[in-house]
Amino acid sequence: MSLQGPIVVIADKPAAEIIGALAAGGAFPVVEATWADAPAAIGKIAPAAVILADPDIAAAVHGNTEALCLAIFAARVPYMPVLERVHPDATALLPHALPIGAGEPVERTLARLAAALRVRTLDLSVRRRSETIRSSGGVAPILRDSDPLDDATVLVLGRGRTYPKLSVAVGERVGLIGALSIDIATRYLNARDIDGVFIGDGFGSHAVEAFLQSLADDARFRDLPIALLPGMTVTASHAHLPNMETIAGEPADMVARFIPLVRQHAYATRLQRLLAAIEAKGMVDPETGLFTVAAFLRDLQRAIPEAAERGSDLSIARFSFDEPLDQRMSLDAARLVSRLVRSSDFACQTSDGSILLVFSATTLRSAHVVARRIASVLKHTMLTRERRIDPTITLATLKASDTVETLIARVNA
């Protein structure tokens, strides 16, 4: 494991073990600072990460965290992770700090730090490439400065007595998907953008173990935050699940401790969407993962004469919703469609929230089959507490006299 530096370790008593482990991991320089000296140290060296290594420091500082918070806020760009070792029944001193159990071995701290530094590296890459585009006169996608929790979704598994309260506590903070079985949870993980998994009670240890091992074996879920209730004994590789944490307490307290890990994952997902938009040279909307409307119209403008020249079919589908979706659900629907679109097809989301999808070299009948499958996935995956999302499909196929305007007008009729 190679760790980038510099790293500030905050502790009022010697933290030789973690200092030595960081040095062995390649972090340089590693600066040890007391609570009183930490703000100055952070301001001076602009660290890649900060670690609060002393879980007993809360009693010593009596909640006086303002100076440290201000120093961290000033150094937050690019992303600078803050890890805090905390006791099982305690809350973190710093509101956005990534918690790590005080009793966990130092290797767990280093694994979580490495995962957090991967997010920092991604942030640096996005900012560097955006600046390159701007310096050459181009227009780069904008990285939103809003709270990543606005986009976050947590999957809650359970069918025991804690599940209802846990679901309510999660739903009050972020988007919620509930699953009463591990099979259903696996389906959601493959279909939706999930930023955290909270495993409640009601499952056997072997089932939980198998589920965690499947996550550890899949590179897509390497850094996914996972929360476990106390008493769940697992042997899944900690190295491959660095953000797995056992959390105790009341549901609201458990969720509060889990939220910083969820926020970091949601931020990384936002960065990945932005990077995809940059690599697509502005054709992809970083919010939805679909084409921008302008790029969609340009591609359709080229596709129509090409289809006519080759004598091939071209069909278009519109997915609309009888009741307007709120912004969160509208984005979720578009992101889900972006996962389902075939590589030969292209889609966009319009200003009214509907989704246009062009099927290349596809007859109207075949397009209808594919569109119904996509609508079925939306219907059975996009669940809200109030209602089920049930899109209406409108289809049109290319005629010899069609232009972009007439084709879209027919599918919008």
Looking across the biggest beta sheet, what order are the strands in? 2-1-3-4-5
Average pLDDT metric: 89
Question: Largest sheet at a glance?
Answer: 5 strands, parallel
Helix percentage: 40-55%
Overall shape: it is: globular
Q: Regarding CATH, which class of the largest domain?
A: Alpha Beta
Name the CATH superfamily classification of the largest domain.
Answer: Response regulator
Which residue ranges are poorly predicted, with pLDDT under 50 across at least 5 consecutive positions? Answer: none
Q: Return the string of H and E elements.
A: EHEHEHHEEHEHEHEHEEHHEHEEHEH
List how many beta strands DSSP finds. Answer: 14
**Domain tally:** 3
Total helical elements: 13
**What would you call the structural class?**
alpha/beta
Straight-line N-to-C gap: 58 Å
Give the amount of beta strand, in percent. 15-25%
The CATH topology of the largest domain: Rossmann fold
Please tell me the CATH architecture of the largest domain by its name. 3-Layer(aba) Sandwich
Q: From the alpha carbons, calculate the radius of gyration and give it in angstroms.
A: 24 Å
Structure notes:
- By secondary structure, the chain is of the alpha/beta class.
- The protein folds into three domains: 134 residues, Rossmann fold, CATH 3.40.50; 122 residues, Rossmann fold, CATH 3.40.50.2300; 130 residues, 2-Layer Sandwich (Alpha-Beta Plaits).
- Helices cover 44% and strands 15% of the residues.
- It is built from 13 helices and 14 strands.
- α1 packs across α5.
